[in-house]
Amino acid sequence: MSIKVQGLSKTYAKQTAVNNISFTANSGRIVGFLGPNGAGKSTTMKMLTGYLQPSAGSVELCGLDVQAQPVAIKKLMGYLPEHTPLYTDMYVQEFLSFVASTYGLQNADEKVKQTIQKVGLQAEQHKKIAMLSKGYKQRVGLAQAIIHDPQVLILDEPTSGLDPNQLTDIRTLIKTLGKDKTVILSTHIMQEVEALCDDVIILHQGKIVANQSLDSLKNEQGDFSLEQIFRKLTASTTN
């Protein structure tokens, strides 16, 4: 397995954002990571990537402890956060060359060229990032996440801001990447889960309420759409 999460929790003062969750994710599978706003999705993703220290529990990526081996983890992982931090005064090609240099990639120029082509930035590569539309900025964010060919991809709302044509292209790319990588994908778009995901994890109030293959979840819940299943499992309750 590429990702192993055991007893993971995150508490802020008296508020528990993530409450003792455990799951695994395997190579060649795309996992839809779902939940209503405030369920703990982004917090969990930040802990998976090592950008946030858990209050309890552990995360392993490709057999390495995320907290104990942060530098090695960064080489194995690609991360697209919900709000992609980009150097907007840099040009697209310049920014990706910078990212490639931080990973110490060999044949960096060729890697940049290939990645620009993969995410469809050929026409925008000589523009400043600040001048790009939201959709193209999102493509730059995806490009920085995959340029070093990571084994694990963690994508928080990767299709946010894309128009229908861009959406199709990026979904196709994610599906292709998922054939030989472990991909965890957060989204609010149920059609996207249906189109892309093999497995589904649903969070509600910091706890896992579903963790299984998409097909088995739908079979188990009977004649309901994924949206209906999601609403059923995340119906508001008080702890």
Automatic annotation (TrEMBL):
Keyword Transport part of the UniProt annotation: yes
Tree of life domain: Bacteria
ABC transporter domain residues: 3-230
Pfam families xrefs: ABC_tran
Keyword tags: ATP-binding, Nucleotide-binding, Transport
GO MF term set: ATP binding; ATP hydrolysis activity
Family (UniProt): Belongs to the ABC transporter superfamily.
PANTHER family (UniProt xref): ABC TRANSPORTER, ATP-BINDING PROTEIN (PTHR43335:SF4)
Protein name, per record: ABC-2 type transport system ATP-binding protein
Species of provenance: Pedobacter duraquae
